[in-house]
Amino acid sequence: MDNLLSNRKFHLKGCSVLYREAVSKWQYPTAIAFRYANFIFSGMDGYSAVPMPTTGITWPLFSASFGIFSLIAISLFLSVINHGVSEQLMGDMIRVTEEFFNMSKEDKAAYYSEDTSKTNRLFSSSDLSKKDGPRYWRDCLRLACYPVPETINDWPDKPAKLREVLAKFIVEARDVSITLLSLISEGLGLKEGYFEGDLSSGQVMLNANYYPPCPAPDLTLGLLPHCDFNLITLLLQGAVSGLEIMHQGKWIRVDPIQNALVINFGHQLEIITNGVLKSVEHRAVTNSGAARTSLAVFIMPAKESFISPAKEIVNEENPPLYKSFVYKDFLRIYIELLAKRVDVMEAFKING
Ligand SMILES: O=C(O)CCC(=O)C(=O)O
Ligand SMILES: [Fe+2]
C-alpha cells in the first residue's frame, strides 16, 4: 500500500530524500522526449498533416468507415473521432479515475493488492521493496469489466459515481471496438463477423493508469515498452501527453487529440492477420509538471480460443508466419517473457 505513488507527497522542487534514493535506482536510463509528431492525415474532415506509413490496411476498409468514424490518423496507432462515445462520458471517466487516485490512503487500501493472480486490484509499478529490476512511475487500477452486470459489484464502490460511469463507458468502448473489428474484417476480405464469437468474447479488462508528476522524468518511465497481449485496445487519454510508439527505431509521441480515442492492435490481431496489421510497441513516459491519466480497454479472446493466422489471408505465396495456439497459453508465455515484443514475437513465429 505504501508503494502507491498516488499516496505520497510530492516535492517536485527539492525532491525528498526518499525520492532521490528511489529514482537513482531506476533502471531505465532515459525517457527520450520526442517532440510532437503530427499524426493527422491530410485532407479529411478539415484536418491536415503528415501521413504516417500505413500498416498495409487497404483504403476500402476505411472508406467503409467514414459514416461512423472519421479516421484522423493512419499511423500504426489509429485515432478515431466521431466514434459515438460522448465527450461528457469520456470527461466523466477521466474525472472519476482521477478522483479515485486522489482518494485517501485509507479509502484506497480496500482495493490494493500485490497478488498478481488477482485480476481486480489496485497496484503500483513502483515497488520500492524490490531490489532489482525496473520499476515504473505508475499506479494502476485493473478491473475485469465484462459482462458488466456480472462484474460491476466487484468494482470499487468509491468514488460514488465510478460504477455508473464505468458501466456506461465499457459498453460504449466495447461497441466501438467491435465495430472497428468488423470494419477491419471487411477491409481484409475476411468473412463477415470474423472477429465475433470466441476471438472477441473474452474478458474486457480495464487498466486505469495514473502517472503522478515525476520528480525525475529522465530517469524513469511510466510504463515499460510493450505490445498489448489482446486483440484490440481502445485508449482514452486525458489532456496530458505521455504515450509514445516505436516507429523506425525511434519513440514518437502520440499526443492526446480532443475527443479522439486511440486504437491499438494487440498481438492477436497481428497474428490472425498474419502480420498485415502490426501490433505496435508503445510505452508511457512521465513528466514533472502534471499527473497523467489514461484508460486502456482491452478486448480479449476467450481463454480457450484457438488463435491462428486466418486461412483467408495465408496461401502459398503468403505462408503463415505465426504458430497456432490456445489464447491462455499465449498469456502465460507473454508474462514469462515480460511482455517484450521481440521475445514474444519470436516465441510465436514459425521457425522462431
Ligand atoms: O498510458 C498510456 O498511454 C498507455 C497505457 C497502456 O499501454 C496500457 O495500459 O497497456
Ligand atoms: Fe499498452
Automatic annotation (TrEMBL):
PROSITE patterns: FE2OG_OXY. SUPFAM superfamilies: Clavaminate synthase-like. The chain crosses the membrane at residues 57-81. Residues 201-301 form the Fe2OG dioxygenase domain. Coiled coil: none annotated. InterPro entries: DIOX_N, IPNS-like_FE2OG_OXY, IPNS-like_sf, Oxoglu/Fe-dep_dioxygenase_dom, Plant_2OG-oxidoreductases. Keywords: Dioxygenase, Iron, Membrane, Metal-binding, Oxidoreductase, Transmembrane, Transmembrane helix. Pfam families: 2OG-FeII_Oxy, DIOX_N. One of its GO terms (molecular function) is dioxygenase activity. PANTHER family: OXOGLUTARATE/IRON-DEPENDENT DIOXYGENASE. Belongs to the iron/ascorbate-dependent oxidoreductase family. This is 2'-deoxymugineic-acid 2'-dioxygenase-like protein. It comes from Carex littledalei. The lineage of its organism: Eukaryota, Viridiplantae, Streptophyta, Embryophyta, Tracheophyta.
